[in-house]
Design goal:
By secondary structure, this protein is of the alpha+beta class. Helices cover 39% and strands 15% of the residues. The chain has a 3-stranded mixed beta sheet. The termini are far apart.
């Protein structure tokens, strides 16, 4: 295993990452520990593959809302049903 200190790894990070992708064993000495670098397969965040995945959620947040008129009507009804009654007098004088 090729060993680098943190400063060496930082200075040559792109080359270090390419070496690791080609299969070279590289470790970084951080304090009294060795951190071994190795590639793993990962799903890109910008590629939604299934509902609820990080990529799908980011895409939904960045996109335009897709509301139907029924959705808006349902939201309006929920807001109306949750409103408090209107008080005509001074609220602190109630019950006196």
């Amino acid at each position: 295993m090729k060993m680098l200190n943190v400063a060496e790894a930082r200075a040559t990070l792109p080359a270090v990452l390419e070496s690791v992708k080609r299969g070279e064993d590289i470790g970084i000495m951080a304090g009294n520990q060795i951190i071994q670098l190795k590639p793993i397969e990962a799903e890109p965040l910008n590629t939604p593959t299934h509902r609820g995945s990080p990529g799908a959620m980011l895409q939904a947040l960045r996109g335009e809302p897709h509301l139907r008129s029924h959705d808006v009507d349902e939201l309006d009804a929920a807001i109306e049903s949750a409103k408090l009654p209107i008080h005509a007098g001074f609220i602190l004088n109630e019950g006196k």
